[in-house]
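Researcher: Please generate the 3D structure of the following complex. Treat every line as part of one assembly.
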Amino acid sequence: MNMRKTTYFVVIILAGLGWACQTEPDSAELIDQMVVSTNYDTEADFASYSTYAIPTDTIGFISNNSNDTIITYPESSYPRDVINTIKANMDTRGYSKVDRSQNPDLGINVMVVNDYNVFQEIVYPNYYGYPGSYYSGYYGYGSYYYYPYVNTYAYNTGVLIIEIVDLKNRTPDNKVKVVWDAYLGDVYSTIDRIAQTQEGIDQAFVQSPYIGK
Amino acid sequence: MTMRLIFLFICLLSSSMLLAQEKYIYLSLDVQKPASNTAWIEDITAAAGKLGYRGFIRPNFSAGLDIGWANFDQYEPTSTKQNPTGAITSDYFHYIYSYSGVVSGQYYFKEEDEDRLFPYAGLGLGAMTNEYVLYYNIYEDTERSWGFLARPEIGVLYRFTNRGSVGIMAAIHYDYSTNKSEKFNYNNFSALGFQIGLMAMTF
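Model: Done. Output below.
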């Protein structure tokens, strides 16, 4: 083997070994679509509901490092785009949007939780966990509704949470039940936040075929 | 008692090979293909390498230490996984970061002062640690495990010139380790590898 071939060989070996250092996936490929997780109350009869209420252009904002509690249009177009996408999916499934004052069967909560790790649990006051559990009231419907909160933060992450609450079957002490929720993440590390969120919401409904009249 | 004997054996072996007058070190690329739980990762990787030291304690027998590293990865396109109360949709990046160290022995089919080509067969025994990582969006799920490693190997050393101190080495090896991962469904970890690299020798 002559000197030139030896040099090429050495360069190939060293380049290969350099490449062999611990690698991670390309970040752009990682965040080009959101993780969409949905859960539902297996005892809920989604065909028994007809109407729903949803805020017009405001979504909740839960964070340990901000005093803001809502994200509002027109300060951001995000709430309106998100809500309109949810409405479009609910309408397609045969439900009708009504005003809160018209005694809707379902209420929809939408919120962004900041600095939230999906491997942690968020804390719901007076709430016992996943769909099927009761908590104390939905906004405008007696007792109290507290937005959930998180105790820890370490990363600049955010999850969009959509909850469908059963207002039709309130308990005598006015407690309501979450019958479906969707978690979409991460809403901060995105390539196109609005488009990816809308795709994520559509996907949440696609993977929940039981929602519908 | 058994551990003491193993420790004593390793000490004696180590001192023998370090005192050996004739020895070689090598650095090699190590192309590997997983052979266990290929449903999780089956793709071949060239992002792997080995570094080793071997000293002759007999004219046709050497012993040494090898350390190795490998990154395995495979992409899982977007899919929806159902569970009893819901579903999750994402694409996933499966990764295994593997590191190993073995004490090895090699038998050469020619004695060291013959010719320039030295075929050999060897066996390495040691430990492997694997970190299994599932990346999805900004999230990751990980599990690390340790296991006993056995590595049979056949290979060849080739000296560039008759009295030169540089050459190449190539080998095929099979790694079997007792690494388990309940989370990612590994009862053990095994891989088939082909390594090619440079060596510097004193014989």
